[in-house]
Design brief:
340 residues, mainly beta, Nuclear Transport Factor 2, Chain: A, Glucose Permease (Domain IIA), ten-stranded antiparallel beta sheet, five-stranded antiparallel beta sheet, 5 helices, 14% helix, elongated, binds zinc ion
């Protein structure tokens, strides 16, 4: 059989699943062309194998068509869960996750994601033959919640790697992340716990996040581990001192992944959620200490300054920011017309 003999066609039998095939036939019903397309989403490449019959002979060729870049708008209003809303709005997970990342210094999504909050997003998508094959970069995003509006855009300064910045040009990267747990499909249905464990009540000035055992815990800022080990009711406990001398502490860990004296970088995994010490179930007890005093962790985001410089004067920035601002308005209006 031709497909098995031909070296190019043998590509069909290897590689990732999810190949899409189409066939055309002659009026007499004989195979004219066989076209199979597959996508390598990691490096965003499309391959197409075409087998053609001409003058009684089969030939094959491998093409790498370039998909067309589109700018898509999407928006959603939170009614129940974040991921239910993204699905309903047809926003791909890869885009939603970039939006969560863009605002990781502003919002603890585990704790501060109220019903009625509205997300608008502008993002790249790549199309071939009328079909969206994959999405790319989130270009702009807005979260509107009550009176608060957060906006961010992707910006790549000449010769630099891209990053999320606010529309006035300051970096979205902060000295502190707003949450020690990354918001995900797994953690999103747990959220913070209202009731502290009885034995912990006296000392309780922190936030308890319910999450499945084994969920990675990340340090919210750069720092040095000043405690790592067992501490009474806290069970497995880690304390990290940060450059501004504030500290964060993480309790009831299942597994500790850092040792005393170790330097850690923002976002690094320091252990996993567990239920060691006085805990009724898997949860992370998280503390924020300023000058040694336990302080409400919801202060972190407002205390946290941007970690890099403002860049509004770089060439082209203002124009890009203006375009994103306009596109975000359009994205929001798309949602409103959908809702009506
Ligand atoms: Zn607690």
């Amino acid at each position: 059989m031709f497909l098995a003999r031909d070296a190019t066609s043998r590509l069909l039998l290897t590689g990732a699943p999810g190949k899409l095939a189409s066939v055309t036939r002659t009026p007499a019903g004989r195979l004219k062309t066989l076209s199979v397309r597959w996508v390598d989403a990691n490096n965003q490449r499309v391959s197409r194998l075409v087998v053609q019959r001409q003058n009684g002979e089969y030939t094959s060729r491998l093409e790498q068509p370039t998909p067309r870049r589109l700018v898509q708008f999407g928006s959603l209003t939170l009614r129940s869960s974040f991921y239910a809303a993204t699905e309903q709005a047809g926003i791909p997970d890869a885009i939603a996750e970039q939006a969560l990342e863009a605002f990781a210094g502003d919002i603890d999504f585990q704790r501060d994601l109220p019903r009625g909050a509205r997300f608008s997003m502008v993002y790249e998508a790549f199309e071939l033959d009328g079909e969206i094959l994959f999405t790319g970069q989130l270009l702009g995003a807005e979260i509107q919640s009550g009176k608060q509006t957060h906006q961010a855009m992707w910006y790549q300064a000449p010769g630099k790697t891209g990053e999320f910045v606010s529309l006035d040009g300051s970096s979205q990267r902060r000295a502190y992340l707003a949450s020690p747990l990354a918001f995900s499909r797994i953690t999103s249905s747990y959220g913070p716990r209202i009731h502290p464990v009885l034995g912990e009540q006296k000392a309780h000035k922190g936030t308890d996040y319910g999450a499945p055992a084994g969920t990675p815990i990340r340090t919210v800022a750069d720092g040095v581990v000043t405690f790592s080990g067992w501490q009474g009711g806290y069970g497995n406990y880690v304390v990290i001192r940060h450059p501004d001398q504030a500290a964060t502490a993480y309790a009831h860990l299942g597994r500790i992944a850092v040792r005393r004296g170790q330097r850690v970088e923002q976002g690094q995994t320091i252990g996993t959620v567990g239920s060691t010490g006085t805990a009724t179930g898997p949860n992370l007890h998280f503390e924020y200490l300023v000058k040694g005093e336990r302080t409400n962790p919801s202060r972190i985001a407002s205390n946290s300054s941007a970690s890099t410089v403002v860049i509004p004067n770089l060439p082209g920035f203002k124009k890009e920011a203006k375009a994103i601002r306009e596109q975000l308005i359009m994205a929001a209006s798309v949602a409103q017309s959908n809702a009506q």
